[in-house]
Amino acid sequence: MSPATTSLVVLGATVVLFVWNRLPVGGVAVLTCLTLYATGLVDATTALSGFGDPVVVFIASLLVVSEAIDSAGVTTWAGQRLIDVVGDGAVRLMVAVLGLCAVLTAVITLNGSVAALMPMVLVLATRLKRSPSLMLMPMAFAGSAGSLLALTGSPVNVIVSNAAVDAGSQPFRFFDFAVVGLPLVVVTIVLGVVLGPRVLPRRPSTRPVRDLGRHADRLAAYYELHDGFYRLRVRPGSPVVGVPAGRLDLTAYPGVTLIGVQSAGGHAVTGTTAVDDDDVVIVSGASDAVGRLVPELRLAVAMRPITVRTAGIMNREVGVVEVVVPPRSPLVGETSFPGQLRGTDLVVLGIRRLGRDVGASPLELTAGDSLLLHGTWTSIEELVHDRDVLLVDSPDLVRRQAVPLGARSGRAIVVLLAMVVLLALGVVPPAIAGLAAATAMVLTRVVSVNQAYRAVSWQTVVLIGGLIPLSTAIETSGAAGLVAKGLIDVVGSGRPYLLLVALFALTAVVGEVVSNTATVLIVVPIAVAAAQETGVSVQPVLMLVAVAGAASLLTPISTPGNMMIMGPGGYRFGDYWRLGLPVLLVWMAVAVTLIPLVWRF
After folding, report:
1. Are 534 and 169 in contact (CB under 8 A)?
2. Which of 99, 407, 463, 468 could form a disulfide with 50 if both were Cys (CB 3.0 to 4.6 A apart)?
3. What are the DSSP calls for 292-306, one per residue?
4. What pLDDT score was predicted for residue 51?
């Protein structure tokens, strides 16, 4: 077989493996680049070059930036501000949610925006008493349109921009995509609001997401928190020194309730054990009464008072977490009480046994007891790895939903804006701007190193890195020219509009069963060859491929965003085309009409 035929056979086998869906997509990509080397279509350097390609570096860095923006509470803040501004009208909220998803996608990619907004949308659907299926699919489709608002919206945009440079043309600038992307966002929102309720099914979510926006209020009510706590350290010479803890009497101070005594070593002091220097007396009550007690009993405030108002127990610096004592935990048999300090800065706010409040007196813990702990988010997050307790809710999820604009949100926004400016002005290559932004997010501690590693979708990295050599082989072997010639024979020479329609159809169809990124990598060399064969400028052709690559709307497997909404929206495989097909056809009409007006043939 000729090299061109061999590369087309490899392409066909790759598509079949993607459609078969029995192997991981990353595994298919690696097998593809190994096959290209084994058949002699590319050398070893070219077969591995995709993994070090600037496109891959840029995409990986965008995923880290996306994680930083979300974990800092910026997306939560945007969602809450959205509700505050537009109110709770169903149509207004629908338009606002779709518009927000489109804008977020332009900054943090489709996967990031759908993941960030999906919990909020599920909560909104519950509050509006609407099926989430009427909101999630239009939101995902609006996000796909939003990926065409800026260079950072999708890996596809970066791929076609680099392809334009490789073809000897000018790269697409940061906001060039918005020329066609903005009209597509508008028509997608209109179709989602008007057509969506008529064609989409009304089904309950198969994976409801808890609304943690009022988490602090609910926990305060559940643990019956009414008063704050004062931790008072016993100073030398205090009259309480030597008094058995069980006989400590504060009746001389009306309004003050003794909760417990904790030793300097962190253990509860109970019964006949005497109170000693540096022990901590925990009380609750009115501040004026406590203020009188402190000097008279020669006590010192060991920690600023902890209030149980929502603003007091959960904000940017501190939060709460509910934990359960598991069987065989070292905590079983220990004495605990509200106000007790555990670890460096975690304070017990409340204890419940079998769902019932046990009051403020010291209690010997048993398996199944639940405790409400208050402290810094850093200390709370360390409990994730603590085997002595089981966490009821993920601290990270609680923080993202309940604490808008977290402690590091300002740094995250500044870094994000700096990256956008660098990309918009073209001061440095996109990969450098993205890598610098991701590094800055880590150095400024918006995200930890481990968070940054977890944020990178290695499946996406391997997929793109493994398929870039296939794109190269299709171009260098002459396969792109063969396919392009076939397209030209079908549509005829001198018919650039028909060529655009054919390329759109080819990209859109393949993109429904293969990821849109992989599809564009495959189609780009064919599109460039077709443009050069017919004497058409590559810019309109590549911009159309970018639009068609984003139009992966007919199946749940075409994009991770479509897949993410399937369970929460209660969708089935065949539901996507109901709204996706009209949106895709309108996209094609807009793209074929508008693109040649801006980028001339």
Report:
1. no
2. 468
3. HHHHHTTEEEEEEEE
4. 84
Q: pTM for this structure? A: 0.64
Instruction: Select from 185, 214, 179 the least CA-distant residue to 97.
Output: 185
8-state DSSP, 274: B
Alpha-carbon distance values, 597 to 129, 151, 497, 532 (Å): 44, 20, 12, 19
Helix (H/G/I), strand (E/B), else coil: 1: coil
Burial of 31 (0-12, 13-18, 19+ CB in 10 A): middle
For residue 434, give the amino acid letter: G
Could you report the per-residue pLDDT of 81-92, keeping only the tens digit for each?
776 777 667 788
Q: Is the dihedral of CA 470, 475, 478, 481 positive or negative?
A: positive
Q: State the pairing for strand pair 341-342/299-306.
A: unpaired
Residues in the chain: 601
In the block, tokens 């927000």 appear at: 100
pLDDT confidence bin for 536, thresholds 50/70/90: confident
Structure token pair of residue 33: 């680049």
Query: Which are the contacts of 129, defined by CB distance < 8 A and separation ≥ 6?
Result: none
* pLDDT score of 225: 66
Element (H, E) at 323: strand 318-324
